[in-house]
Amino acid sequence: STQEKTPQICVVGSGPAGFYTAQHLLKHPQAHVDIYEKQPVPFGLVRFGVAPDHPEVKNVINTFTQTAHSGRCAFWGNVEVGRDVTVPELQEAYHAVVLSYGAEDHRALEIPGEELPGVCSARAFVGWYNGLPENQELEPDLSCDTAVILGQGNVALDVARILLTPPEHLERTDITKAALGVLRQSRVKTVWLVGRRGPLQVAFTIKLREMIQLPGARPILDPVDFLGLQDKIKEVPRPRKRLTELLLRTATEKPGPAEAARQASASRAWGLRFFRSPQQVLPSPDGRRAAGVRLAVTRLEGVDEATRAVPTGDMEDLPCGLVLSSIGYKSRPVDPSVPFDSKLGVIPNVEGRVMDVPGLYCSGWVKRGPTGVIATTMTDSFLTGQMLLQDLKAGLLPSGPRPGYAAIQALLSSRGVRPVSFSDWEKLDAEEVARGQGTGKPREKLVDPQEMLRLLGH
Ligand code: FAD
Prior knowledge:
By secondary structure, the protein is of the alpha/beta class.
């Protein structure tokens, strides 16, 4: 059948999940894959999430670019699925649709005072320094002495590191010019990372080492939090063991002379506050902005994975001028026609096959939930691709030809939507690289979608 000859498939989202799924699908010798992306530019969190001082992580862009250069793959940016085109319309035009649109929202703290100026999500802060258009107006106020990050994951570490890194060390990264300007004026000296549970339950990984070695900053850890840990770590899995040993050494061992001197001359500090659960963001006396966080002291109940933090009844107020909530990203439903588990924040699926909807698949954070690194996302996206190709082979997808992009292009054009192609992106890319030259930056990101479209003559 024609379907066997040219399966028309589309992927929604151009982050790691979208690109790795496409890469796997292109193993089929005839399949054509269109990738739709709501931003005018590709790569999702590789561009808008990964920290500017981690350029090596962004090398995956080279692989994605190769995929996009395949004659059987096309990128269509500036197209928001659910708004510009619906999922049923895509299902009509393609043999199969893969949803890989990530996690566009953040988990709220759901505590009083959360709406006060001076409180923002780590997601928005990351988007701000990485040039995500919707966060360019954030204007975080860094005129305070102390910032509190609620959460102890890798995103919390990224945010703490960006707040504390000497700005001159960020000058040659792709951080936006505006963010670098604000960070240069920053008066933040201390950053606390607050967690409900203890050192054995932190969500961040061995990336902590970078924090410990951060120039100009010293760690503040309370040895009391680490009592008895030496015995417990014998039983924990290796990555957690290494991480806990690092924490333990930092907290309890006397630093050597060089390190002691480094710490003594450090003008900034960061610390981990364990066994603290946020209850309220405290307002300043005039009620106009955040001035601290009220924390409930907790202790642990249960063992291993089931360990929970329960309040002891004690409270503690931590004064600060900036509160960043970093308790997780969250996916949104994309279209009323697509099943969505709002409790888990994922599309219900079995190995990437969306439950009860033949021909519809998912991959990445919207499939698994918002955890895991790019490599995890790669594995799960390859698996989704594999399931789809199996279904295709088994004749489970619609037979007969499908129009693919031709039909969607007509719809988009009737709605006044002008997609951005991959070669358009390459023009924007060249422009960004050119703007970075002279200042020694790998690129100066374009942050205004209107300007991007203007540059493309759209
Ligand atoms: P995303 O990367 O979010 O991609 C989803 C894409 O879908 C986006 O481009 C989005 O614009 C698009 N989209 C959303 N809605 C629509 C719609 N309606 N229509 C069309 N398109 C849409 N991993 C590492 O390995 N190393 C790191 O250093 C690292 N740092 C990170 C730092 C941060 C702050 C965060 C949040 C994550 C980090 N990760 C890191 C994890 C990594 O980014 C994720 O594993 C990965 O990006 C998830 O891929 P995804 O494609 O599912 O989601």
